Amino acid sequence: MHEPTFLILTALVDQPRHGYGVIQEVAELSGGRFRLRPGTLYGALDRLTADGLVRVESEEVVDGRLRRYYRLTNEGAQALTEEAERLRRNVDAATRRLARFKSPGWAIG
Questions:
Q1: Which residues form a coiled coil (predicted)?
Q2: Which residues are CB-contacts of 38 (< 8 A; sequence separation ≥ 6)?
Q3: What pLDDT is recorded for position 107?
C-alpha cells in the first residue's frame, strides 16, 4: 500500500470526512509531508470506493457544489490494520538491526 493511500484510510478511521477534510487530516497526520491535491485525492477515493475500502456516507450541496462524505468500510479497516502491522514489523526489524549497529565515528541519537 502506498503511503498516501495509508494516510487517506487513516484519516477516515474516526469519522466520515469530505474531500477537503481528508486533505487537511492527511496533512496533519503526515506532519505536513503530504499535501494531497484534489485531483489526486478524488482519483484515490474513486479507486478506494471501487475496491470496497471506503464508501460514500452522505452527500450535501454547499454553496451550489456537491460535497461527498466518505467513510472507511470494514474491509478498509482490515486492510489498514494489515498494513499497519506490516509496517510495524518492518520498523521492529530495522530497530533491532540498528541497535546492533556499531560504526566508528557514527552514533545514533
A1: 70-97
A2: 19, 23
A3: 61
CATH for 3-97 (1.10.260.40, 1.10.10.10, 1.10.357.10, 3.40.50.10170): 1.10.10.10
Mean pLDDT for back-to-back runs of 10 residues, the chain (109 residues): 96 96 96 93 96 96 91 98 97 91 64
Domain ranges across the chain = 3-97
CA distances to 16, 22, 38, 98 from 10, rounded to whole Å, are 11, 10, 17, 28
- Measured CA distances, 70 to 2, 52, 73, 81, 83 (Å): 19, 12, 9, 18, 20
Helix-helix angle 38-50:3-11, to 10 degrees: 80
Give 34-84 as a DSSP string: ----HHHHHHHHHHHHHTTSEEEEEEEEETTEEEEEEEE-HHHHHHHHHHH
Question: Please, are residues 42 and 94 in contact by the beta-carbon 8 Å criterion?
Answer: no
